[in-house]
Amino acid sequence: EGFVVAILGATGAVGTRLIQQLEQSTIPVKAVKLLASSRSAGKVLQFREQAVTVEEATPAAFDGVDLVLASAGGSVSKKFLPEAVKRGAVCVDNTSAFRMVPEIPLVVPEVNESALYQHQGIIANPNCSTIQMMVALEPIRQAVGLKQIIVSTYQAASGAGQSALNELYTEAQDFLDGKQMHADIFPTKGDQKHYPLAFNLLPQIDVLEDNLYSHEEWKMIHETKKIMLGDMDASDIKVTATCVRVPVPISHGESIWIDTGDPTATVDQLRQAIADAPGAVLQDDPAHQVYPQPVNATGTRDTYVGRIRPDLENPGAFNLWVVSDNLLKGAAWNTVQIAERLVADDLVHPVVPATK
Ligand code: A2P
């Protein structure tokens, strides 16, 4: 009884958390397959005190698999997930490969879990920065409204993967030892120049596009519209973003300005909306210096919201500060949470190809 679950990218920063989150989940697991590149094949990892040997990802590795949790990069998902669907699996993909395909659900369960009913075998997990912003802003949108978002992110190094996190530690050590820092990965592996992140700030996440935005900024704008309004180009909510990599290992921070459109909206209303919201925790007590911090969020599934305060010159507008573990709610937990809903709603079944 139960499901055969494959984790694609099982040895990575998110993959190791996918294993932990699946161990702790309500999903009945009959067997688990841990897939990665040929570099890791043969490595032995643990799942619920069982030794599991990592296998190389190939199309045939998905034979007999019911559920795939993928976090091995966009090109790897593009290559293997259609193969897994052909073999009868349902895939929850943590990469950007399929997020902007209109027919593919892009889901934050607290916001739009009903979109899961439209799935055709692949469900996309949003970008880490988008997810935590949705958990914080959807309850405010429901309670008082939401017309505009201006967000600046403070994104942790681990968002770029385990090797990037290792690069930050090495740079920090070299700096403290008085040595030259050396960068190969940040700001982004695929670009021409690399800069140290330790003791620095990099206002580039992913590639810089012709429209002058980074691809990460573009994702936050269009994923927000698709999740909240069902259309990546919807104009009912205006969104703009500045994404910055900071030398923090885990958990992203976000400074968010919003216009609710309701000049009578109050801080108390916003605090109450967050306090009542699933997945969100209100951490907002200025008198006692209580506010969200990455060191406290790391290792937990929640999204923490604080520093809620009115824009003193724009009635109905507010500033807030949001922190969440980018590897958990931003990635592994949201992915497993989607899988739990699929199981609970009986949506894990082979997709019958559409007949013409
Ligand atoms: P491997 O450890 O064999 O390189 P991170 O996001 O921390 O960088 O992790 C990326 C994950 O994706 C790792 O588990 C990595 O496996 C896996 N991966 C990278 N390239 C491939 C590939 N071509 N096929 C399957 N898995 C891959």
Automatic annotation (TrEMBL):
Pathway the protein contributes to: Amino-acid biosynthesis; L-lysine biosynthesis via DAP pathway; (S)-tetrahydrodipicolinate from L-aspartate: step 2/4; Amino-acid biosynthesis; L-methionine biosynthesis via de novo pathway; L-homoserine from L-aspartate: step 2/3; Amino-acid biosynthesis; L-threonine biosynthesis; L-threonine from L-aspartate: step 2/5
Active site (UniProt): C128, H252
TM annotation in the entry: none
Binding residues for NADP(+): T11, G12, A13, V14, R39, S40, S158, G159, N326
Region forming the signal peptide: none
Enzyme Commission no: 1.2.1.11
InterPro entries xrefs: Asp_semialdehyde_DH, Asp_semialdehyde_DH_beta, NAD(P)-bd_dom_sf, Semialdehyde_DH_NAD-bd, Semialdhyde_DH_dimer_dom
Claim: NADP is one of the keywords in the record: yes
Any one GO molecular-function label of the UniProt entry: aspartate-semialdehyde dehydrogenase activity
Stretches assigned to coiled coil: none
Domain Semialdehyde dehydrogenase NAD-binding: 4-119
Pfam families, per database record: Semialdhyde_dh, Semialdhyde_dhC
Assembly, per entry: Homodimer.
Protein's recorded name: Aspartate-semialdehyde dehydrogenase
Gene this protein is translated from: asd
